[in-house]
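sanity check this chain:
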Amino acid sequence: MRVRSAGGIDIERWLKAPMQEEDGRLVPREKGTPQGGVASPLSANLFLHYAFDRWLARNYPQVVFERFADDVIVHCRTEGEALAIRKAIAERLQNCGLELHPEKTKIVYCKDDDRRRSYLHEKFDFLGYTFRARSSMTRKGKRFVNSSPAISAKAAQAIRTEVRSWKLQQRSDKTIEDLSRMFNPIVRGWLQYYGRYYRSALHSPMRQLDRDLTLWAAQKYKKLRRHLRRATHWIVRIRRRTPGLFAHWQMGARHGSAMGAV
């Protein structure tokens, strides 16, 4: 049986269409979509919408959940409820030809001031954030513990890797304004996404950018060569004078705290 969308697209033929290599060679496919293909996330979302989302909402209307692609968080009130729902989900996916990832699927205990037990898993990652117990402060200055998100270690490392790939120290032909135009939109995007919660957690990955800017200054200006401390102070002065050049310079950290080359 062929399935057609509302727009008349033949989905079966779409999924079975051969994949074309870079050299023009056609590779036949009997089922599925190629790894990394643009159709893969779309077809997966369509499948999971009916195989998981609609099924869970129909059979467990009291359960709140979030899903992005094949990453899912299901909120349960007790350990018993979590164990029962995990078993039901595993059976449902098995009936649909899928299975839960044996290592990534786990029950997490979200600790806070009202939940103080110890548990095997007390944190999890989702969409570049790590959710775990953190110390917070009310508007009246009172400390409390709640389970909340901040940028994950994996996402922070990805930012450091991306910044290093810019090789700023090799761009001595550019001015600092040039570097701002080239890279500040990317930095601003990181802050807008990962800075939504626990913005201060971004100070650590942003130090990589400040270190590389220091190396760039030391390479560009003869008076700063072989003087990393002097180059660091020069970058600090630029930040104080024009904090809008780079979005992370406006995060409210104390002057010089994000510099890592002293």
